[in-house]
Amino acid sequence: MALYITLTVNPATKVLIWKIEETIDELKSGITLTTNSESRLNSMKSEIHQKGFLSIRYLLKEIGLTDDDLQYDKFGKPHLNNGRFISITHSFNFTAIIFSYETEVGIDIEKQREKILRIAHKFTPIEEYKTIANVDALILKLTIVWGAKESLYKIYGKKKLLFLHHIYVEDFKFADEKTTGEIRFNGEESSYNIKFLEFEGFTCVFAY
Prior knowledge:
The protein is α+β, with helices and mostly antiparallel strands. The chain has two domains: 100 residues, CATH 3.90.470.20; 100 residues, CATH 3.90.470.20. Helices cover 29% and strands 33% of the residues. It is built from six helices and eleven strands. Strands 7-11-10-9-8 form a five-stranded antiparallel β-sheet. The chain has a four-stranded antiparallel β-sheet with strand order 1-2-6-5, with helices on both faces. Strands 3-4 form a two-stranded antiparallel sheet. A hairpin with a 2-residue loop joins strand 5 and strand 6. The chain is globular and about 50 Å long. The protein starts with a strand and ends with a strand.
């Protein structure tokens, strides 16, 4: 089984990343699903989505949890009991969770792709990045910004939040591997730490 990366963010918070290399049967063999999860799995038409769903349950197992510990609210946000927090992400052959005993958390994995250049204006003021002449560097930077905003969106966990107008990410240098972000909505502001890393053409960003 393929636990790929484990990061200790602080004593109460961990990030775990799984690289999917198993068959569906191999993934099914080591976990127990609730009736509801079994139904969700069977309704998935894509094999990669099924593998992502199952591999997340292995990440839960790594932190001593089971499928039964995971609940979703009406907005689709995952929840745990007993004052624990979790966020989940899946992209192609990677899945990840961030788990904390003390704070709301969010995580996102994205494949670094040129198409982000076409949609950048929808989630960030693109003029802020006009000084980046190298296309690969621009793709990487925008992917981090998107992942950061997606992570903060997951922390908020409700609809109506707009990436362009309500979520802000402080500018950063690649070498720092961290920045900060804010959610400004309905007259309220909340600030978060953001960290990011790269591997195999993917970017993982998480907020806490």
